[in-house]
Design goal:
Blueprint: H1 8-35, H2 39-63, H3 86-95, H4 98-122, H5 126-154, H6 160-165, H7 170-181
């Protein structure tokens, strides 16, 4: 069982790490979606990145002068595990569907909301409680936005989860492309 957050400095360490990672990932998602012509999703991710960046800056300002402890960099990572390796992250962006990327964001936003709700419910410090409740409300709003984006992605009329589970989708199209590029067997072309 985790120990309750005992100091404002410790709270800020977690809040800053969560916001920094969210801003970083939403910027990557924005770029990814923009590169693929998904302007609505790129716009959403750009807005979320800006909100996270602004909130991170506000938290830094509030924490100025405090001895905020360092957290392990991987503590709140969305995509990488352990030491960051570009190849692993790049692979995710090459193979993930828009829905899968949004699922990653939704999982992270829900995790952040649960964390802040837990802090608010376990701390005896009134200042930490108020800060955690404020953060939990903001994360709940982000959960709603990402959930709506997932509904938007499903609105394209294709049930990608079902199609991929049945062995269809982009892989089938790629296989067909390869078959068309093959030279016909001798005597057949």
């Amino acid at each position: 069982m985790l120990e309750p957050i005992g100091s404002v400095e410790e709270f800020y360490a977690h809040a800053l790490a969560i916001e920094r990672e969210a801003a970083r990932c939403y910027r990557r998602f924005q770029e990814h979606f923009a590169d693929r012509g998904e302007e609505v999703l790129a716009g959403l991710c750009g807005n979320l990145a800006r909100f996270e960046e602004d909130h991170h800056a506000l938290l830094e300002e509030r924490a100025r002068g405090l001895a905020v402890p360092e957290l392990p960099p991987e503590r709140y990572r969305w995509l990488e595990s352990g030491a960051p390796e570009a190849a692993d992250c790049d692979l995710v962006f090459r193979v993930a569907t828009p829905r899968q990327l949004l699922d990653i964001a939704l999982k992270a936003e829900r995790g952040a909301r649960r964390f802040f709700e837990w802090v608010a419910g376990t701390t005896a410090n009134g200042e930490i409680h108020a800060l955690a409740e404020e953060m939990a409300r903001e994360e709940a709003e982000h959960v709603q936005w990402v959930t709506r984006a997932i509904e938007y992605v499903r609105a394209d009329g294709v049930d990608w989860d079902k199609l991929l589970a049945a062995g269809g989708g982009p892989g089938l199209a790629l296989g067909e492309e390869r078959r068309l590029r093959r030279k016909p067997p001798p005597g057949k072309g």
